[in-house]
Amino acid sequence: MNVTTSMLVLAISASAITPATLFAAPLTTSIEKTEQQQEQEQLAQLITVAIKSDANMAQINAQQHAMLETSLGSNSLPDPKLKLGIGGLPTDSFSINKDPMTTLSIGLMQQFDRGNTLDLQQQKGDIQANAIGIQQAVRELDITNKMTQLWLELGYQQSVYRVLQRNHRLVTELANFTSTNYAIGSGEAQDLLQVKLQVVKIEDKLQTNLQTQHRIMAQLSEWLGADWLTNKTIIQASNQLSWQQLNQLMPRLTATTQHYSLLKQHPMVQIANSAISANETQVSIAQQAYKPQFGIEVMYASRQANGMSGKPASDLVSAYITMDLPLFTNNRQDHHYAAAQYQVGAAKSQRDLLLNQMNAKVNALLVEHDNLNQRLSRYTDSLLSQAKARTQAVERGYQNNTAQFNNVIAAATDELALVIEQARVITDLNITNSNLAALINGFDIQPFSLQFQQSTTINNHNQ
After folding, report:
1. Which residues contact 398 (CB under 8 A, 6 or more apart)?
2. 168 with 224, same domain?
3. Is the pLDDT reported for residue 350 higher than 90?
4. Is the same domain home to 105 and 249?
5. Over the stretch 304-318, which tens digit does the pLDDT of each residue have?
6. Is there a smaller number of Cβ atoms within 10 Å at the N or the C end of the chain?
7. Whether 40 and 22 share a structural domain
């Protein structure tokens, strides 16, 4: 009995997951630090590959260039109009060389826009193109957050799988030992059935765990591609990251419930600000409608007939200036100007709503972060030690014939469940950190090279 129960306790104690303290200075060896750095680098590489191969990024890039070209095209005058005609044609003969009043005319007409409308339209287009470019940063943050969360989930499943594997191996040895004892008449049948049932339960958990790992790998292929999934790339993930950047921001986050200074740097807020700027430019465009619109027209008329003196009649040249006078502005211009101002107000309200929503998310995540830290401390300080002490107490009771074998199994199972639950809390805490980092730019991994390259391209294009 002593050997039997000792092996069962060994199965649990060998499975303990020792969590690194996420917001303190953990005592780790250089080997552990190297492994953590390697895992962090592997995650960064996967995120970079995902961003570069993301079809949505290519779509945003194409849309931005399309808007830039449209912006350049909008800052040009309309094409001139060519005017051809014949005038003063006599109806009795329809001859062009008998009446000196008959002319063959050719002319050009050019219309100019009101005020600075063309420059303002290009300015608005540039603002909109820049906003589209910022969508790349939004997409990069989204990919980084989702990839990080899948990485953490995969790391959790892999850590649990290793725990279950060790327990399966040791409990299988325990089952063999119990079977041998039963065969020689020194064991109970119910003990043998109980430990065999425990082996089957662990095998089922192992299969369920592998199924979850395969599902997560399939989800990763959304960004890494089907070929990556086909190649069956081996990933050694982790359910916790260092979060150095986020840890530096945590004092500012916990000191107040208003986080607008950090949130204003978020790409979504920058896009909202671009929408405000674009609508303010539209107000300026609407103001140009109160200015007159000019046009010029130049005509050259050739006469084929002779004049009264018998000599060839001289040709004629005409020049005109046209001007559109906005006299009745209350019918059109006033309404367009008012509509543009309302659009500015709507864009500002949309930005304020976005900031309030993001601020509420940050506060909710901070509450969740604090609760998870408290739970993790409870597991580390009391739950695991109490569960281990209970298992040892039940073991001693079984050795002294004051406890049943199923009590030993139940205590060991509860301790194993607590170990796995602790790993779940660590994972949830890191997922909360990932969601926080996505809102306040707290990722240690920031592969935003595509966004920087795009910004450089826009600046060069404007210059």
Report:
1. 1, 5, 404, 405, 407, 408
2. yes
3. yes
4. no
5. 887 777 788 888 899
6. C
7. yes
Q: Which residue in 388, 451, 380, 364 sits closest to 422, CA to CA?
A: 380
Percent with pLDDT over 90 in the chain: 49
> CB of 57 within 8 A of CB of 137?
no
Residues 211 and 100 placed together within one structural domain of the fold: no
Same domain as 249, residue 287: yes
Give the integer Cα–Cα distance in Å for 103 and 315: 8
pLDDT band per the 50, 70, 90 thresholds, residue 25: very low
Q: pLDDT tens digits for 161-170? A: 999 998 888 8
Q: Do residues 453 and 334 both lie within one domain?
A: yes
Write out pLDDT tens, residues 60-108: 989 999 999 988 888 888 889 999 998 888 888 778 888 888 888 999 9
Number of independent structural domains in the chain: 2
Tokens for 178? Answer: 């119990």
Residues 453 and 431 in one domain: yes
Pair 152, 238 in one domain: yes
- Final residue of a structural domain among 304, 325, 346: 325
CB atoms within 10 A of CB 357: 12
Contacts of 5 (CB under 8 A, 6+ apart): 395, 398, 399, 408
Amino acid 191: pLDDT: 78
Token pair listed for 451: 């966004």
Q: Which domain holds residue 317?
A: 79-111+292-325
Question: What value does the mean pLDDT of the chain take?
Answer: 84
Closest CA to 241 of 19, 16, 55: 19
| Tokens coding 287 | 């103001």
The tens digit of pLDDT for each residue in 374-418 reads 999 999 999 999 999 998 898 888 888 887 777 888 888 888 899
